[in-house]
Amino acid sequence: MYYQKLINLQAQKSSNNIGLNTLNYLKKLRGELPLFKLVDQDNDIATIASLAAEIKSNFKDVIILGTGGSSLGGQSLYALTTAGAPRLHFHDNVDPDTFLKLFTAIDPKTAKVIAISKSGNTAETLMQLLVCLQHWQQQELEIKNHFLIITEPHENAIREVAVRHECQTLDHPTDVGGRFAVFSLVGLLPAIICGLDAHKIRAGARYVLDEISNTTEPEDCKPLLGALLQKALLSHDINQSVLMPYVDRLAVFAMWYRQLWAESIGKDGKGTTPIRAIGTVDQHSQLQLYLDGPKDKFFTVVTMEHSDNQLKVGDHDFEHSTLTIFKSKTMGQLMQAEQQATIDTLVNNNCPTRVLHLNKLDEEVMGALMMHYVVETLAMAHLLEVNPFDQPAVEESKLLTRHYLQQG
């Protein structure tokens, strides 16, 4: 489904005992972690699909409110589709200009709003929801027909809004954290609405988990190997992790990874800083630093077969040498040349580099890719001896936000 290739990686090998200990930890999680149990079953997909079908048949636009894990997983999956209707609009910030533009671009009469907050008390999501409610009320529309809430099944702020307006409310899994929720209805409902196959998404995730169950050596467990290498690189002061896909459809996925990695392992003064880059764009903005700046980065380049011949340059009579090389070449050939050139240049400049190569990108591959990074994150947290499931340091910022808003 995908493979992992290590190129001239200059890092000491972690001891086999550490690797085996972490592999056993992952095997234990395989049978116990609620997230892993979730992807082992598909009996909830029919219910999600029924709701998605109802939304598709009644609305032209679907607006998804939420931030972080409530949004990025669904956005990553949505990037796979070219379906035209209904259009999905993910809004994960509270910039008023963005919402003013949204309200001029859609017709509230034919739009569904899905608000997602695991805790039900997320300030940004609540503000988004209240502003949307007000806009729909001004159009004298029946709120309960246009709004759907996803939150934990206990009393919270967003449930009060839902009850007040008789909005349909679905339960967010209480035992699956927001940044891990892509394989739940949080990610699968948007995916199914836009025509993706949720069964295949979970099948790809199970593929990765089954490999863990069947693996006896740490170096044969690809996510664990990635974590072991990054742990070893820390002793060489390589403390930044750059994920650089040469696939535009993985641009949001790289942002999803950034949150997953940062919130899960950045604790107790430990961790590595995740950096999202996109090839070829960041060859023109970041590559100079990567090659000639501090040698403190580990690179994962995600490549793909770009062999589509539809966008092909024909014969022409241009004489400039920079133009003649494009004769009878496809855009995909340029993309493949660029990604290989970046890999070779990184290696030639002694930058520790890993390549994840995709022969294709569909629901199953995306499910596997996302689960790969979930497992790699959990393995890294175990190696660093931090809890991957909490985020205690951000509470101060949340409290200050409420304080400043009350004072304003």
CATH architecture annotation of the largest domain? 3-Layer(aba) Sandwich
Low-confidence parts, pLDDT < 50 over ≥5 residues? 1-14
Average pLDDT metric: 92
Beta-strand share of residues: 5-15%
SSE arrangement:
Elements: E1 3-7, H1 16-32, H2 34-39, H3 45-58, E2 61-65, H4 72-78, E3 87-91, H5 96-105, E4 111-116, H6 123-138, H7 143-146, E5 147-151, H8 157-164, E6 168-171, H9 185-193, H10 198-213, H11 222-234, E7 240-245, H12 251-265, E8 273-276, H13 287-292, E9 297-304, H14 321-324, H15 331-348, E10 353-358, H16 363-384, H17 395-407
Task: Describe the model.
The chain has 408 residues and is of the alpha/beta class. The chain has 2 domains: 3-15 and 201-392, Glucose-6-phosphate isomerase like protein, domain 1 (Rossmann fold); 38-196, Glucose-6-phosphate isomerase like protein, domain 1 (Rossmann fold, 3-Layer(aba) Sandwich), CATH 3.40.50.10490. It contains 17 helices and 10 strands. The chain has helices spanning 16-32, 34-39, 45-58, 72-78, 96-105, 123-138, 143-146, 157-164, 185-193, 198-213, 222-234, 251-265, 287-292, 321-324, 331-348, 363-384, 395-407, and strands spanning 3-7, 61-65, 87-91, 111-116, 147-151, 168-171, 240-245, 273-276, 297-304, 353-358. The chain has a 5-stranded mixed β-sheet with strand order 1-10-9-7-8, with helices on both faces. Strands 3-2-4-5-6 form a 5-stranded parallel β-sheet, with helices on both faces. α12 (251-265) links the parallel β7 and β8. The longest helix has 22 residues, at 363-384. It is globular. It starts with a strand and ends with a helix. Residues 1-14 have low confidence and may be disordered.
